[in-house]
Design goal:
- With 276 residues, the protein is α+β, with helices and mostly antiparallel strands.
- The protein has one domain (16-184, 220-273): 4-Layer Sandwich (CNF1/YfiH-like putative cysteine hydrolases), CATH 3.60.140.10.
- Helix content is 21%, strand content 22%.
- The chain has 6 helices and 15 strands.
- The strands form 3 sheets. A 6-stranded mixed β-sheet has the order 1-2-3-15-7-4.
């Protein structure tokens, strides 16, 4: 893997790449001082369509390779593999409150995790959906959410904020970073998605623009997620501006894989922990 040298500190809304021992990941100054990372696909041991840092426990990848990838990612954040907690994601709005490590075989069906326990690493997996990491540093509460359009529409982000509040966080003190996901110039959707979003909120029409294909639209998923977080009272929000569809060498993308004819695909990890 070609390693990247650290770049000058960017503006808070512009995450920067961080050099790690092996895995490549992005951080966002908004989430300092919490250990966190939006990992790319670089720096793992998986092969073929899963190359290289596939961290999904649900696919057809070699389990030993996935375990090593997850170990590397946890190590990059200063944690043990056992501390990395993840979910069986179902594109819903359920939130798991995590108080102890979650064994991989006992992953709950949910799309977000929250904790007030330092040392636990909250991880979610994406391959076009929006990964969202959240922190109230003063209250000592962290969260991580998987927000595809279905989950975002169902309220997973608001549910994550509410669960953090239940642990002592204040919405205005929460900082949320939206990581790499499919960008608004690439996410073509049909009239069913357009109708479902507008049926809930007519003002959400601002997140759609006409697509070249008649009757279809381009959907701004990260912008939509940011608006829902703001409406939930989150005090500060940033967007990575990275598109998983266009950056093939750096990110897995479900949509890109479908357009190429289908087949298996890996998923990148996004994770956050409270400082010890």
């Amino acid at each position: 893997m070609r390693r990247r040298l650290p770049k000058p500190l960017p503006a808070p809304a512009d995450p920067a790449y961080v050099a790690a021992m092996d895995p490549e990941f992005l951080t966002d100054p908004l989430l300092a001082p919490a250990p966190h990372g939006f990992f790319t696909r670089r720096g793992g041991v998986s092969r073929g369509p899963f190359a290289a840092l596939n961290c999904s426990l649900s696919g057809a990848d070699d389990p030993a390779a996935v375990a090593e990838n997850r170990r590397r990612a946890a190590r990059a954040l200063g944690a043990t593999p056992e501390a990395l907690c993840s979910l069986f994601q179902v594109h819903g709005a359920q939130v798991a409150v995590v108080e102890a490590p979650i064994p991989p075989a006992a992953r709950p069906e949910a799309d977000a995790l929250v904790t007030r326990r330092p040392g636990l690493v909250l991880g979610i997996l994406t391959a076009d959906c929006a990964p969202v990491l959240l922190l109230d540093a003063a209250a000592g509460v962290a969260g991580a959410a998987h927000a595809g359009w279905r989950g975002a529409l169902a309220g997973v982000l608001e549910a994550t904020v509410a669960a953090m509040v239940g642990l002592g966080a204040r919405p205005a003190a929460i900082r949320a970073a939206i990581g790499p996901c499919i960008g608004p110039a690439c996410y073509e959707v049909g009239p069913d998605l357009h109708a479902a979003v507008l049926a809930q909120e007519a003002a959400a029409a601002r997140f759609f623009t006409p697509a070249p294909r008649p009757g279809h639209f381009l959907f701004d998923l990260p912008g939509y997620c940011a608006a829902r977080l703001a409406a939930a009272g989150v005090g500060a929000i940033s967007l990575s501006g990275r598109c998983t569809f266009t950056e093939e060498e750096r990110f897995f993308s479900h949509r890109r894989r479908v357009r190429a004819g289908g087949g298996p695909i890996g998923h990148q990890l996004s994770a956050i922990a409270l400082p010890g």
